[in-house]
Amino acid sequence: MGIADMFYGRSAKARERRAAKVRNKYADAPGMTPELLEPLAQSADMPSRDRVALYLEAVPAGAEPRRVLHGAKVYTGTSYVGVLFDSGLTMRWGGYGGIRGTELEVHGADLPFGGMQKVEIFSHEGDDGILVSGSDGTNDYSIGCLGFDPQDVQEFAQATVAARDQFVQPASPDINIDSSLPPEQQLAALEQMRSLGAIPEDLYAATAAKIRASSH
């Protein structure tokens, strides 16, 4: 075992000791469940309380995390958490502004696999992390998350790419609008379906454009 392996605690015994500490320390944290605790226990570093708070904020009710990446930019006091799910990646970051005990400032992004285009790893000024790029259908994005162990960062990126490649995009719903109606009424019916959440935004935009084009 090399020096880096010892420093990052990569051995089976080190990982199990760390997992036991995580379970003992955070099993009773508000909002924590056994299903949420285990992925955190298997992560590559002992999480701080702010990273645990970010992790719990990043997991929607009923969701099952596959893997967790977390790290911190020490000189800014900012913590980062990335959570991998079957359908995408959720990132949260924030800090206490240097004053312990105040409310944690949380920022974040939910990145479904449908719009995810590229997952890269980076190392800059001692920080290692992943950089995820893609589009939400309207705007392009490029968002990063720091980790602790460079090897774990690479494995998390690989797991994200593998999950994205295995993800099957749900089929778009059929849109049934009476084409004999005037374009204004067709657009009104389409807008109602959109307001009810019955169609995704990209399909709404494409159908609305088609209706408008047909009226000219």
Structure characterization notes:
The protein has 216 residues and is of the alpha+beta class. The chain has seven helices and seven strands. The strands form two sheets. It has a four-stranded antiparallel beta sheet with strand order 1-2-3-4, with helices on both faces. The chain has a three-stranded antiparallel beta sheet with strand order 5-6-7, with helices on one face. It starts with a helix and ends with a helix. The mean pLDDT is 88.
Summarize the model shown.
The protein has seven helices and seven strands, in the order ααααβββββββααα.
What's the Cα radius of gyration?
22 Å
The class by helix and strand makeup works out as: alpha+beta
Poorly predicted runs of 5 or more residues:
none
Number of helices: 7
The overall strand count is: 7
This entry's quaternary arrangement is: single chain
Order of helices and strands: HHHHEEEEEEEHHH
| First-residue to last-residue Cα separation | 71 Å
What is the percent of helical residues?
Answer: 25-40%
Mean pLDDT across the residues is 88
